[in-house]
Structures are given as C-alpha cells and as structure tokens.
Specification:
The structure is a homodimer.
Chain A: H1 8-34, H2 39-50, E1 53-54, H3 55-62, H4 66-78, E2 82-86, E3 94-98, H5 100-112, H6 118-121, H7 125-138
Antiparallel strand pairs in A: 1-3, 2-3
Helix pairs in contact in A: 2-4, 2-5, 3-4
Chain B binds a DNA duplex through α2 and α4.
GO molecular function, one term (chains A, B): DNA-binding transcription factor activity
GO biological process, one term (chains A, B): response to stress
Protein name (chains A, B): MarR family transcriptional regulator
Chain lengths: ~150, ~150
DNA sequence: TATTGTTATACTCTATAACTATA
DNA sequence: TATAGTTATAGAGTATAACAATA
C-alpha cells in the first residue's frame, strides 16, 4: 500500500498540511497568550464555554489523565474564569463551568483566531466547497459532529 | 473584512482543518512515543537527521529559548541518538548532529507517520493537485521551501 | 467492589536571568 | 562589548500511583 510515499505531489501536499498545522498552532498559542492563558487552559475554557463538563469528561476530550485536569481547572478557577459545581445526580462528580467572565474570554479568544478567517477569505465559496469535500474524504468522512458523545472511553 | 466568519461553509472548513490538526498531532505524538521520545525530542531529532545544526538555530526553528535546547539535546545525547560537535569556525558554537542510531530512529519515526500517506491515498492524483493548489493559496503561496534560511532572528 | 476527583511525585518543556568562554 | 551555550530557577503540562468520598 501507499506507493505514493515518495511521490513528489503527495510529499508537497503533506508538507503543506504540515505548514497549516504549524500556523494553526502558532495562532492558537498567540491568541491564548493574549489572554495570559496557556494552550491547555484556552482549550479547556473553549470546551466549557460550549457546555459545562465533568472533570472526567474533560480529561477524555483532552486525551490526558484525569489528575491533570485538577490543576488546569484550579488555575482557571483561581482567575475567576471557571467554577466547579456539584452534580445533583452523583455526588462524586464535579462539573466545571465557565463563569460570565469565562464566557467573555472564550468569545474574545475565538475572535482572535485569525487563522479561521483570513486565509480562507482568499478562497471563493466554490473553492471552499471543494476544499471541504477534499478534507472530508481525506478524514474518512466519518466525522462525529460536535458533542463527542463519549465515543472514547 | 471577513464577513465569512459566521458563514456555515467557512465554519465547517475551519472545523475540518481543526480535525486535521488534531489528528496530525495525535499521530505525531504516538509515533514519537513508540520510540520513547517526547514530541520536542522527535522534532529535534527530525531536524538533525536532515542537517547538523547549531544550538542557537535549533532554538529558532523550535521557536523556543536557547536555554531549553540544552536539555533536549542532553537527553537525546544521553540516549546516543545525537552528539555535540565543535564548530571549527567559531569555538563558541556547538553543532548537534544525529548519530547513526539517531538516523535510524529518525527514519523509523518518519515511516511511522501514517497520516502523511493513508488519508491522502484516498484522493486521486487530480484531487491531490487540487488540494495542493487550494492549500497553497490559503497559505499565501509565499512558502519558503525547506532550509528556513534563518528567515527569523 | 468500582468509580470520581484529588493528592503526591517525578519528568519534560517552557521562559527568565545570570554566568562562562569565546569573539 | 556582544554572542553562543550553559546553568539555575520557577511555572505548567504530563503520567503513575495511592487515597477519600461516593456509588
């Protein structure tokens, strides 16, 4: 399989994707830094701005150990961006939720992500559709949309 | 500028790119872990497998402070994957280079990166060309190819 | 017993500042 | 004096193991 590994065209596309990945991260870290957040903190805040989430579930979404989430939430909570709430249904679980200020920060963070807009603005709607379709096929198309549905675990 | 920010098509493309970025990183970390390397170590080893490089330059390419490179190279050197050589031209600089085993590891690492091949294999040559052109335009086309030419500093 | 979140510990990456040896 | 690499230090993310509270 994959006779294409050394094919120049494939290599160039791979290289371009690498560039996209690199630029995406630069911009993400930059935007986070503007709010004095680390990448991990910004990522978690973004999650919580979508939906209050139990610690365990945050760990799954971050693909890290639950013990790490404690510290990240601690730091966000110390800055008033997040709060821990008890789960009425199960007294073992704690649900982390963005505060009002947390939501404001998450909004600002999202707006600061130039990458999401500027480069794509170069492309016409038709071209964006083409890009979308190619990316979909590249990713196998089996994209579970938002909620993540704990397809992990 | 950017009236497209809330346009569903653009949002979907942005989301797809986010998925590409996430998958790319997962695979990278996974491949590195298979060789008991951290992401940073794998990245540096990859660099050095291309070309022996002075400490300062490694820092620029990693976009981190030079002091951090010392530790990363220390750990790679302790495992026999990298060695430090003096620069005949300037006795202040040290040049890090991959050892034979370092080159072998870098090769294995590269081969382990399925992402580079599998997903692209789904696309026909014509589609890959289209994807290449779209990505090029998206990235502004001003891509300085490999060598990095210390376009930073 | 099993699970949730936490604590304790250790390692790596990161930035900052001060140091050394060259230049 | 300026630069290359290092050391020292501190903060953050990470994994592992052990623990309390709850299920």
């Amino acid at each position: 399989m994959s006779t294409s590994r050394t094919d120049p065209l494939t290599l160039e596309v791979v290289d371009l994707i690498g560039t996209v990945v690199a630029r995406y991260h630069e911009e993400y870290e930059e935007a986070a830094a503007r709010y004095r957040l680390t990448g991990a903190q910004a990522r978690v805040l973004g999650l919580l701005a979508m939906e209050p989430t139990a610690m365990r579930r945050i760990a799954r979404q971050l693909k890290c150990e639950p013990s790490n989430v404690t510290g990240i939430i601690d730091r966000l909570e110390a800055r008033g961006l997040v709060e821990r709430r008890p789960d009425p249904a199960d007294r073992r679980v704690k649900i982390a939720a963005a505060t009002e200020e947390g939501h404001r920060t998450a909004r600002g963070l999202r707006d600061a992500l130039h990458f999401a807009r500027e480069p794509l603005a170069e492309l016409s709607p038709q071209e964006r559709r083409t890009l979308r379709d190619l990316l979909r096929r590249m990713l196998g198309d089996v994209r579970v949309v938002p909620g993540d549905v704990q397809a992990d675990a």
